[in-house]
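Bug #77: duplicate submission created two jobs. Keeping one. Sequence:
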Amino acid sequence: MEGFLKTIDLLEGKLLSLLKNYQKLQENNASLSDTNRRLLEELSHQNQKYLDLEDKFQALKIANTIGGSKDDKLKTKQKINSLIRDIDKCVALISE
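Kept job's structure:
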């Protein structure tokens, strides 16, 4: 009977140890999930910024290739930038 009680005590100790480890792993998993979610959001934001900059770069390239005087280029750049701002506003309204 005494051996049986020792076995039960040993089993209980191991079970408690496993439960503690399980709780620590759950907390660690939750923390890693939060970090992963935050990093994915940041990556998405950075990708959007990259795409916006790429669009602006393309617009500037187009504006620079248009012939004419410097005054014409400036007006063209201003018009393109105005159009880009309007598009950005529309995209922001759509994404809300």
